[in-house]
Fold this protein.
Amino acid sequence: MEQDATSELLDGRYHLETVIGRGGLSTVYRASDQFLGRKVAIKRYDVGAIDAAREEAELAILAGLDHHNLITMLDAGSHVDQNGRRTRYIVMPLVRGMDLSERLRGSRMAARNIGEIGYDIAEALEYIHSQGVVHRDVKPSNILLVDYGNAARRARAKLTDFGIAVADGVERITLAGVTTGTAGYLSPEQAAGEPVGPATDIYSAGLVLLQCFTRSIEYPGTPV
Protein backbone atom coordinates (compact mmCIF):
# COMPACT_ATOMS: atom_id res chain seq x y z
CA MET A 1 0.00 0.00 0.00
CA GLU A 2 1.31 3.46 -0.93
CA GLN A 3 1.96 5.91 1.88
CA ASP A 4 2.68 9.62 1.95
CA ALA A 5 6.37 10.49 1.80
CA THR A 6 8.09 13.62 2.95
CA SER A 7 8.61 15.93 0.00
CA GLU A 8 12.32 15.56 -0.60
CA LEU A 9 14.56 16.18 -3.60
CA LEU A 10 17.58 13.90 -3.99
CA ASP A 11 20.59 15.49 -5.66
CA GLY A 12 18.35 18.21 -7.06
CA ARG A 13 16.83 15.69 -9.47
CA TYR A 14 14.68 12.96 -7.91
CA HIS A 15 11.53 14.11 -6.11
CA LEU A 16 10.27 11.49 -3.64
CA GLU A 17 6.48 11.14 -3.79
CA THR A 18 5.09 8.10 -1.95
CA VAL A 19 6.38 5.02 -0.15
CA ILE A 20 5.57 1.89 -2.16
CA GLY A 21 7.57 -0.70 -0.22
CA ARG A 22 9.64 -1.30 2.89
CA GLY A 23 12.27 -3.88 3.72
CA GLY A 24 14.48 -4.58 6.68
CA LEU A 25 17.26 -2.34 5.37
CA SER A 26 15.65 0.08 2.93
CA THR A 27 12.55 1.92 1.74
CA VAL A 28 11.29 2.08 -1.85
CA TYR A 29 9.63 5.25 -3.13
CA ARG A 30 7.67 6.25 -6.19
CA ALA A 31 9.58 9.28 -7.42
CA SER A 32 9.76 11.75 -10.28
CA ASP A 33 12.92 12.30 -12.32
CA GLN A 34 12.87 16.08 -12.76
CA PHE A 35 15.58 15.98 -15.44
CA LEU A 36 13.96 13.44 -17.79
CA GLY A 37 10.35 13.99 -16.77
CA ARG A 38 9.57 10.37 -15.96
CA LYS A 39 8.42 8.30 -13.01
CA VAL A 40 10.96 6.01 -11.34
CA ALA A 41 11.31 3.81 -8.27
CA ILE A 42 14.02 4.69 -5.76
CA LYS A 43 15.38 2.27 -3.22
CA ARG A 44 16.88 4.27 -0.37
CA TYR A 45 18.93 2.58 2.32
CA ASP A 46 17.85 3.39 5.86
CA VAL A 47 20.35 5.43 7.86
CA GLY A 48 22.56 3.08 9.87
CA ALA A 49 20.69 -0.04 8.75
CA ILE A 50 23.46 -1.35 6.53
CA ASP A 51 27.18 -0.81 6.25
CA ALA A 52 28.89 0.82 3.28
CA ALA A 53 30.47 -2.47 2.20
CA ARG A 54 27.09 -4.15 1.63
CA GLU A 55 25.74 -1.10 -0.19
CA GLU A 56 28.76 -1.12 -2.48
CA ALA A 57 28.35 -4.85 -3.06
CA GLU A 58 24.75 -4.45 -4.23
CA LEU A 59 25.67 -1.54 -6.49
CA ALA A 60 28.55 -3.51 -8.01
CA ILE A 61 26.26 -6.44 -8.78
CA LEU A 62 23.40 -4.37 -10.22
CA ALA A 63 25.72 -2.27 -12.37
CA GLY A 64 26.80 -5.36 -14.28
CA LEU A 65 23.35 -6.85 -14.95
CA ASP A 66 21.02 -6.19 -17.89
CA HIS A 67 18.23 -8.63 -18.78
CA HIS A 68 14.55 -8.34 -19.70
CA ASN A 69 13.52 -10.50 -16.72
CA LEU A 70 15.36 -8.37 -14.14
CA ILE A 71 14.62 -4.99 -12.58
CA THR A 72 17.87 -3.25 -13.45
CA MET A 73 19.54 -0.11 -12.13
CA LEU A 74 19.18 3.22 -13.95
CA ASP A 75 21.22 5.40 -11.61
CA ALA A 76 22.69 5.54 -8.11
CA GLY A 77 23.90 8.22 -5.76
CA SER A 78 24.11 9.52 -2.21
CA HIS A 79 22.19 12.29 -0.50
CA VAL A 80 22.79 14.37 2.62
CA ASP A 81 19.52 15.26 4.38
CA GLN A 82 18.76 18.39 6.41
CA ASN A 83 20.18 16.70 9.51
CA GLY A 84 23.51 16.03 7.82
CA ARG A 85 22.92 12.27 7.48
CA ARG A 86 24.17 10.68 4.28
CA THR A 87 22.17 7.88 2.65
CA ARG A 88 22.71 5.91 -0.53
CA TYR A 89 20.01 5.24 -3.11
CA ILE A 90 19.38 3.24 -6.26
CA VAL A 91 17.13 4.41 -9.11
CA MET A 92 15.15 1.73 -10.96
CA PRO A 93 12.32 1.67 -13.52
CA LEU A 94 8.85 2.14 -12.01
CA VAL A 95 6.86 -0.85 -13.19
CA ARG A 96 3.09 -1.21 -13.36
CA GLY A 97 1.79 -4.35 -11.70
CA MET A 98 1.98 -6.28 -8.44
CA ASP A 99 4.46 -8.62 -6.83
CA LEU A 100 3.78 -12.34 -6.70
CA SER A 101 3.07 -12.34 -2.96
CA GLU A 102 0.19 -9.92 -3.55
CA ARG A 103 -1.07 -12.01 -6.47
CA LEU A 104 -1.09 -15.12 -4.29
CA ARG A 105 -3.54 -13.42 -1.94
CA GLY A 106 -6.02 -13.18 -4.82
CA SER A 107 -7.81 -15.82 -6.87
CA ARG A 108 -6.27 -19.21 -7.68
CA MET A 109 -3.77 -19.09 -10.50
CA ALA A 110 -4.10 -21.25 -13.60
CA ALA A 111 -1.36 -23.83 -14.19
CA ARG A 112 -0.45 -22.09 -17.44
CA ASN A 113 0.12 -18.78 -15.64
CA ILE A 114 2.32 -20.48 -13.05
CA GLY A 115 4.32 -22.08 -15.85
CA GLU A 116 4.80 -18.69 -17.52
CA ILE A 117 6.10 -17.19 -14.29
CA GLY A 118 8.41 -20.16 -13.85
CA TYR A 119 9.73 -19.70 -17.39
CA ASP A 120 10.49 -16.00 -16.86
CA ILE A 121 12.24 -16.58 -13.52
CA ALA A 122 14.21 -19.51 -14.97
CA GLU A 123 15.46 -17.20 -17.72
CA ALA A 124 16.44 -14.57 -15.14
CA LEU A 125 18.31 -17.13 -13.04
CA GLU A 126 20.04 -18.63 -16.06
CA TYR A 127 21.32 -15.16 -16.94
CA ILE A 128 22.53 -14.08 -13.49
CA HIS A 129 24.18 -17.44 -12.88
CA SER A 130 26.03 -17.09 -16.19
CA GLN A 131 27.32 -13.76 -14.80
CA GLY A 132 28.56 -15.42 -11.61
CA VAL A 133 25.76 -14.00 -9.44
CA VAL A 134 23.65 -15.91 -6.89
CA HIS A 135 20.52 -14.04 -5.75
CA ARG A 136 20.05 -15.90 -2.40
CA ASP A 137 16.56 -14.48 -1.74
CA VAL A 138 14.18 -15.74 -4.44
CA LYS A 139 10.68 -15.40 -2.95
CA PRO A 140 7.25 -14.12 -4.10
CA SER A 141 7.76 -10.55 -2.86
CA ASN A 142 10.93 -10.30 -4.98
CA ILE A 143 9.11 -11.31 -8.17
CA LEU A 144 7.24 -8.49 -9.90
CA LEU A 145 4.44 -9.22 -12.37
CA VAL A 146 4.74 -6.40 -14.85
CA ASP A 147 1.77 -5.19 -16.90
CA TYR A 148 3.00 -3.20 -19.89
CA GLY A 149 -0.51 -2.04 -20.76
CA ASN A 150 -0.19 -3.11 -24.39
CA ALA A 151 -2.98 -5.72 -24.40
CA ALA A 152 -0.41 -8.49 -23.98
CA ARG A 153 -1.98 -11.81 -23.02
CA ARG A 154 0.03 -12.05 -19.81
CA ALA A 155 2.16 -10.12 -17.35
CA ARG A 156 5.91 -10.67 -17.40
CA ALA A 157 7.72 -11.81 -14.26
CA LYS A 158 10.83 -9.88 -13.28
CA LEU A 159 13.25 -10.70 -10.48
CA THR A 160 14.23 -7.83 -8.19
CA ASP A 161 16.08 -6.99 -4.96
CA PHE A 162 19.73 -8.06 -5.08
CA GLY A 163 20.39 -6.76 -1.55
CA ILE A 164 21.95 -10.02 -0.31
CA ALA A 165 23.17 -11.41 -3.64
CA VAL A 166 26.75 -12.55 -4.03
CA ALA A 167 28.90 -12.44 -7.15
CA ASP A 168 32.28 -13.61 -8.36
CA GLY A 169 34.80 -10.82 -7.90
CA VAL A 170 32.69 -9.02 -5.27
CA GLU A 171 33.66 -9.40 -1.63
CA ARG A 172 31.22 -11.61 0.26
CA ILE A 173 29.80 -9.69 3.20
CA THR A 174 28.14 -12.60 5.01
CA LEU A 175 30.43 -14.41 7.44
CA ALA A 176 31.12 -18.10 7.04
CA GLY A 177 28.48 -20.19 8.78
CA VAL A 178 25.99 -17.31 8.88
CA THR A 179 22.71 -17.63 6.96
CA THR A 180 20.98 -14.76 5.20
CA GLY A 181 17.61 -15.04 3.46
CA THR A 182 13.96 -15.79 4.19
CA ALA A 183 13.38 -19.02 6.11
CA GLY A 184 10.41 -20.22 4.07
CA TYR A 185 12.49 -20.29 0.88
CA LEU A 186 15.95 -21.29 2.12
CA SER A 187 17.81 -24.06 0.35
CA PRO A 188 19.31 -26.84 2.51
CA GLU A 189 22.80 -25.35 2.13
CA GLN A 190 21.57 -21.93 3.22
CA ALA A 191 19.83 -23.42 6.25
CA ALA A 192 23.09 -25.15 7.19
CA GLY A 193 25.18 -22.00 6.66
CA GLU A 194 27.15 -23.69 3.88
CA PRO A 195 28.46 -22.15 0.62
CA VAL A 196 25.80 -21.29 -1.94
CA GLY A 197 25.65 -21.61 -5.72
CA PRO A 198 23.16 -21.58 -8.62
CA ALA A 199 21.33 -24.60 -7.16
CA THR A 200 20.44 -22.44 -4.16
CA ASP A 201 18.31 -20.10 -6.29
CA ILE A 202 16.79 -22.97 -8.28
CA TYR A 203 15.65 -24.68 -5.07
CA SER A 204 14.08 -21.45 -3.79
CA ALA A 205 12.35 -20.87 -7.14
CA GLY A 206 10.93 -24.40 -6.88
CA LEU A 207 9.44 -23.58 -3.47
CA VAL A 208 7.91 -20.41 -4.93
CA LEU A 209 6.26 -22.35 -7.76
CA LEU A 210 5.06 -25.02 -5.33
CA GLN A 211 3.40 -22.28 -3.29
CA CYS A 212 1.67 -21.00 -6.43
CA PHE A 213 0.00 -24.40 -6.79
CA THR A 214 -0.71 -25.24 -3.13
CA ARG A 215 -1.48 -21.68 -1.89
CA SER A 216 0.61 -22.28 1.21
CA ILE A 217 4.27 -21.91 2.19
CA GLU A 218 5.88 -25.33 2.41
CA TYR A 219 8.29 -24.32 5.22
CA PRO A 220 6.87 -21.28 7.08
CA GLY A 221 9.37 -19.06 8.83
CA THR A 222 10.58 -15.52 9.39
CA PRO A 223 13.48 -13.58 7.78
CA VAL A 224 16.92 -14.55 9.10
Summary: Confidence is low (pLDDT under 50) at residues 171-178. The longest helix spans residues 111-130. The first strand starts at residue 3 and ends at 10.
